[in-house]
């Protein structure tokens, strides 16, 4: 017989049972600690590792996976009876007669477990497979042999068995005598447990007497959803729970008295949500919580009853129950919002004993089954509550997973997100809060989901229930979980580690604004004036009429720039302020003079101008004749550029023709004309002004980075690459390579064509690569093309990424470095200036914008890595934005600025946020000095250190430009 070398569980340290809880509970400190958390703090990822003997595992239950419902002498359980009865209400009238067929596929199950390299396997014993009629005299040796083979197979593979003795599948013969409503069940259950301890206890050191007794009591006897389908919510659940608690305690003492000394194992009970009903008697003082007793008593009296519907324990029973657990086993899936209500509005039933209503957290991601709505931060809070309420016990998370529709089969991205977030919240509880988290188990394979049948899957492995052979196939989540276990948590990946070093000495440090977003619009007439004055177009009816009033507050803006210590300032010129109708028929000299004054003031402050010719504010007169869809606008823009180069060019070394005219929102002819207009402006400068002014002219494009949803799927990998090629290349490929890319030509049938002369005219019209970048996105391959510009792909959202004040903007620093490397390889390593990069907030004003400091630190550090490690020719970085300005259609509700603008003050003062000193320190140091070298004079001492928590783990990413990784050496995202 195999030895139990795999068992690493130490004998429990027996402790004195705790006194009753205070009312309100002393554990309210958990709410006091976590409720004030900001979203940024709550979402921050923690890299770290669990203890070396952490028990990573998977779980199952007998009725859900075994099948063989009457094989080799097994007796029927209540679930066999229920599911085989017509009209059970289970979807498609399915049963678990075969389920995963684990009774006949033990070798396959052991192979799965060995391949995953888990340390533990939690499974349950089928009571009616061992005792067909529920009692010892009906012993079925073939059932015992099956579990012996399973246990021995686990130990031979160094996997610790974690055994649940009873998981809802009561023998039908015992239900026929009243089931758990019959007090005889306490002794009958004890005898069954006694047999299990005696038979398997030489090898099993981790026992759970029963699983989720609260679920059994309420669903089986309150709502009647599961066997025995009794609907008596006012009384039966309390009676059943009373007997279950005493049955557990009796079995615990049997182990304690007869087996502990020789077997040295541990015994507990696996509890689900609503812990106190069962946990308070077992872990504290042997009795129900005082709040529960008072609540049920009051409601019973209101119903005219002479005594409480909640049964009472005798003093002897209390003494027997308290302390009957050697560790805390918690099943956890979701969290809810609870609202206090008066009992008068509730019906006279068990539900009436509550004075609260449970609500779904509708701002959290939905899943296939409503009760498993993903609320990862609840895991950390629950673990902290158990620590505070129940005397800091050892805690094993014995169930945690999420439901996904069976048609998703292997591609279970929701489960991947769950593991990345829920396990990390458990890690926070362990490393940051000192909670004694000792183990974690998730669902091994898809199985019969009780009253949901086979509609949903919870497992790491997909089971094809339409195939008689029930093949087991690992899902995407199995790869991820394998790597989490291998790393024993989340080790900080190399690409997330800080790099210390400096940029080149003439590196461009800048911040940016745009004309319409910050300047007084009086005497201008652009398309945004009309748009913002149309009711319903802008949130809160905001307009750019006043904006930040930068037109009249030039000195204040320059003072702000000096405080940030930038070397450059990127701003845009208002086309209609120079040419009111968009043409050279009338040149507004006052507008030219304003910009000359601005340029002179900047240069006097030792700040170099970085000027954008066009930032979305087209003169309305040009829009009235077709705007960018009218080819004549190419000439209009060339003339406008010529005027600016002539009048402002001697003072400007950096020009941007167009800012981020997002191709996904424009007709193809618009981008076609913009590209040609850019080329004409570039040639005007090149032919007439370059020799004397010696400046640089280019276009700036916006580009997100794209990640494959499943890096183990070639089609998702290809989809992500195609997005970057298509989106980034829309403007860049013609300008840097002469024409639209082959991918774009294949994808867009209605794409206009450049003539050979136009290709020659456009090719090479750049002096650097201007890049606006904010975030990364996730893509998967689509079975059919959509009408979006991302042909053949589907855009998804990785909910594990840090959010911001804008629904579209998630913080993904790694993507910037990858995008820079892509540009280097795709376009011949041109000089790159990052012309926009920033993050937003919304809601109440908080000048301590820690999220923005975090954003700049991580994103700029990725730029430094691209520069020093990847030899990318990046020459500048621009923070968006200098001021909290009008953010287009969302008005002033989203704030990107380094400086807060108080719009309730007519003077519109500029107030620096904490990120100002942080960004200015990076600028002063020209990068990131190594803290190991001691304090740096360039670093502002008031700058807050880097947050101790870091973003979501990227793992070892599959990169377009690098070779594919095999399963054995990759870390899935």
TrEMBL record:
PROSITE patterns: GLYCOSYL_HYDROL_F1_1 (PS00572), GLYCOSYL_HYDROL_F1_2 (PS00653). Coiled coil: none annotated. It comes from the Eukaryota. One of its GO terms (molecular function) is hydrolase activity, hydrolyzing O-glycosyl compounds. It is an enzyme of class 3 (hydrolase). Residues 941-952 have a biased composition (Low complexity). Keywords: Glycoprotein, Glycosidase, Hydrolase. The active site is at 836 (nucleophile). InterPro entries: GH, GH_1_N_CS, Glyco_hydro_1, Glyco_hydro_1_AS. Residues 1-24, 934-955 are annotated as: Disordered. Its EC number is 3.2.1.21. GO terms for biological process: carbohydrate metabolic process. It holds the Pfam family Glyco_hydro_1. PANTHER family: GLYCOSYL HYDROLASE, LP05116P. Belongs to the glycosyl hydrolase 1 family. Homodimer. This is beta-glucosidase.
């Amino acid at each position: 017989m195999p030895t139990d070398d795999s068992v690493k569980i130490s004998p429990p340290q027996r402790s004195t049972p705790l006194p009753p809880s205070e009312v309100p509970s002393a554990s309210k400190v958990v709410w006091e600690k976590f409720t004030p958390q900001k979203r940024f703090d709550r979402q921050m990822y923690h890299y770290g590792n669990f203890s070396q003997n952490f028990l990573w595992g998977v779980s199952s239950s007998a009725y859900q996976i075994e099948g063989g419902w009457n094989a080799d002498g097994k007796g029927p359980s209540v679930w066999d009876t229920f599911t085989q009865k017509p009209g059970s209400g289970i979807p498609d009238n399915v049963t678990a007669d075969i389920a995963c067929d684990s009774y006949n596929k033990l070798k396959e199950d052991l192979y799965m477990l060995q391949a995953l390299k888990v340390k533990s396997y939690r499974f349950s014993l089928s009571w009616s497979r061992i005792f067909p009629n529920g009692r010892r005299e009906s012993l079925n040796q073939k059932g015992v042999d099956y579990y012996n083979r399973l246990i021995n197979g686990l130990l031979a593979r160094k996997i610790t068995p974690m055994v649940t003795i009873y998981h809802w599948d009561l023998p039908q013969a015992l239900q026929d005598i009243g089931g758990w409503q019959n007090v005889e069940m306490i002794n009958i259950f004890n005898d069954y447990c006694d047999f299990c301890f005696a038979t398997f206890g030489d090898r099993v050191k981790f026992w759970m007497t029963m699983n989720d007794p609260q679920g059994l009591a309420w669903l089986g006897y309150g709502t009647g959803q599961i066997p025995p389908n009794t609907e008596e919510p006012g009384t039966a659940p309390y009676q059943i729970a009373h007997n279950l608690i005493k049955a557990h305690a009796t079995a615990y003492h049997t182990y304690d008295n007869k087996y502990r000394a020789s077997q040295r194992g541990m015994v507990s009970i696996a509890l689900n949500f609503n812990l106190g009903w069962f946990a308070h008697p077992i872990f504290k003082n042997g009795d129900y919580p005082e709040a529960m007793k008072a609540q049920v008593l009051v409601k019973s009296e209101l119903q005219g009853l002479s005594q409480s519907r909640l049964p009472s324990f005798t003093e002897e029973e209390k003494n027997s129950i308290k302390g009957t657990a050697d560790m805390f086993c918690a099943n956890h899936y979701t969290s809810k919002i609870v609202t206090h209500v008066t009992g008068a509005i509730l019906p006279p039933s068990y539900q009436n004993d509550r004075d609260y209503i449970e609500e779904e957290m509708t701002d959290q991601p939905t899943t296939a089954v409503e009760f498993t709505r993903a609320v990862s931060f609840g895991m950390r809070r629950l673990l902290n509550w158990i620590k505070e309420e129940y005397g800091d016990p050892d805690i094993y998370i014995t169930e945690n997973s999420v439901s996904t529709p069976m048609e998703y089969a292997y591609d279970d991205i929701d489960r991947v997100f769950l593991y990345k977030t829920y396990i990390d919240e458990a890690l926070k509880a362990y490393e940051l809060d000192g909670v004694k988290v000792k183990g974690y188990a998730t669902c091994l394979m898809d199985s019969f989901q009780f009253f949901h049948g086979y509609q949903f899957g919870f497992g790491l492995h997909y089971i094809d229930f339409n195939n008689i052979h029930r093949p087991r196939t690992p899902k995407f989540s199995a790869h991820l979980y394998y790597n989490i276990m291998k790393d024993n948590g989340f080790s900080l990946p190399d690409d997330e580690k800080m790099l210390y070093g400096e940029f080149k000495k003439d590196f461009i440090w800048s911040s940016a604004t745009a004309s319409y977003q910050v300047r007084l619009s009086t005497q201008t007439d652009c398309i945004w004036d009309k748009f913002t004055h149309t009711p319903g177009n802008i949130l809160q009816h905001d307009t750019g009429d006043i904006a930040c009033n930068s037109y009249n507050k030039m000195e204040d803006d320059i003072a702000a720039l000096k405080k940030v210590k930038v070397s450059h300032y990127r701003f845009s010129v208002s086309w209609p302020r120079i040419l009111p109708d968009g043409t050279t028929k009338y040149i507004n000299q006052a507008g030219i003079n304003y910009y000359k004054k601005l340029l002179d003031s900047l240069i006097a402050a030792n700040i170099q101008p970085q000027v954008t010719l066009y930032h979305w504010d087209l003169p309305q007169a040009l829009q009235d004749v077709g705007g960018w869809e009218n080819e004549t606008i190419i000439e209009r823009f060339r003339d406008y550029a010529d005027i600016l180069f002539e009048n402002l060019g001697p003072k400007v070394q950096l020009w941007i023709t167009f800012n981020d005219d997002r191709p996904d929102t424009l007709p193809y002819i618009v981008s076609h004309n913009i590209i040609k207009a850019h080329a004409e402006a570039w040639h005007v400068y090149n032919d007439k002004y370059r020799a004397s002014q010696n400046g640089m002219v280019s276009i700036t494009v916006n580009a997100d980075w794209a990640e494959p949803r499943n890096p183990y799927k070639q089609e998702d990998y290809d989809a992500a690459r195609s997005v970057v090629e298509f989106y980034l290349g829309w403007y860049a490929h013609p300008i840097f390579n002469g024409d639209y890319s082959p991918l774009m030509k294949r994808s867009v049938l209605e794409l206009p064509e450049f003539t050979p002369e136009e290709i020659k005219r456009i090719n090479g019209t750049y002096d650097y690569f201007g890049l606006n970048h904010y975030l990364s996105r996730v893509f998967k391959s689509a079975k059919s093309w959509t009408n979006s510009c991302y042909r053949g792909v589907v855009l998804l959202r990785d909910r594990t990424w840090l959010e911001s004040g804008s629904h579209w903007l998630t913080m993904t620093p790694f993507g910037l470095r990858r995008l820079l490397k892509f540009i280097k390889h795709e376009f011949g390593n041109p000089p790159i200036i990052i012309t926009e990069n920033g993050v937003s907030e919304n809601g109440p004003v908080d000048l301590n914008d820690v999220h923005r400091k975090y954003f700049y630190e991580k994103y700029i550090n990725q730029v430094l890595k691209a520069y020093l490690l990847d030899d990318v020719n990046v020459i500048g970085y621009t923070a968006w934005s200098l001021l909290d300005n009008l953010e287009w259609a969302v008005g002033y509700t989203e704030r990107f600025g380094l400086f807060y603008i108080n719009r309730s003050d007519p003077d519109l003062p500029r107030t620096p946020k904490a990120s100002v000193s942080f960004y200015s320190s990076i600028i002063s140091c020209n990068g990131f000095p190594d803290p190991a070298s001691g304090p740096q004079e360039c670093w502002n001492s008031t700058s807050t250190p880097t947050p101790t928590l870091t973003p979501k783990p990227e793992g070892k990413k599959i990169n377009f430009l690098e070779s594919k990784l095999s399963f054995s050496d990759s870390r899935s995202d």
